Model the fold of this input.
Amino acid sequence: MRDTNKPQPLSCRWVILMVMWLTIFVGVVPQFQISALAYRIIPELDLSARQFSLILTAPMLPGVLFSLVAGLLADKFGVKRVVTIGFIISIIGVYFRFAADNFLELFILMFLSGISITLLNANAAKLLGLWFPKEQLGTAMGLYFTATGVGITFSLATSPLFPTTKSAFLTAAYVMIGVWIAWIVLMRVKPEGSPDLPVMPVVKYLGVVVKACRIWPVGITLMLLMAVNMAVSGFLPTALIETKGIEPVKAGFITSLFSFGTILGSILIPFLSDWVGRKKPFLGPIAFLGAVCLYL
Done:
């Protein structure tokens, strides 16, 4: 008889990482379909620039509103169960976008599409910390974050290839359903036999975080870089089409090139940082260089 108390080998850690990666990937693709297909969506729904911006950023609002709650729900009901339910909500939002015929409907559906990413991101460090040893955790987190860059790149480059907005939206929904099934079948929260992480009171540890003065500059820097990156990725395809006369497919491809920096940085920087043994010499200069490049 197999000893159920014997810890499960960590050979499937990369499968767990792959499923988490795909979950983020399929959550990002629908958001940047809006950017790549703006030249169709804006006139079809008669959107103003402000309305378009709100629709584009709607999937990020759940992260602002529910990240703390996501951790509490995962502690109480389990990460897999919580993300599984969040997946269903996001699939509904992604699938029915084709039926939206005004700003409010598309905004609500895009808001729902961001639920699954929020629930997973809020618990990603906990999951990867259970599956990966400390010396591999930086690499695992780096690979995990490449999903965002790859999702943006893929979405911007391929969305204009679809003959209609509906076909693009439905394809994203079907792919998300496939990843949801993979999540249910393959996802394991922790290696068999390993102890659960202790439940951490949110209010207590939130106070610790707020008082950590070094976190604030990093958070503010990331916020500003994300704002600029969203502006570039969200509006550049339309700007290239309308002001430069570039074809939609080429405009999407040009914009997708910006995400290669995210992909390469997510892989190389954690590796170099672990190799050198220091993080600060990488973070400051790269943040400054990123701002200069985005400005140019």
Q: What stands out?
A: Residues 1-9 have pLDDT under 50 and may be disordered. The longest helix spans residues 215-244.
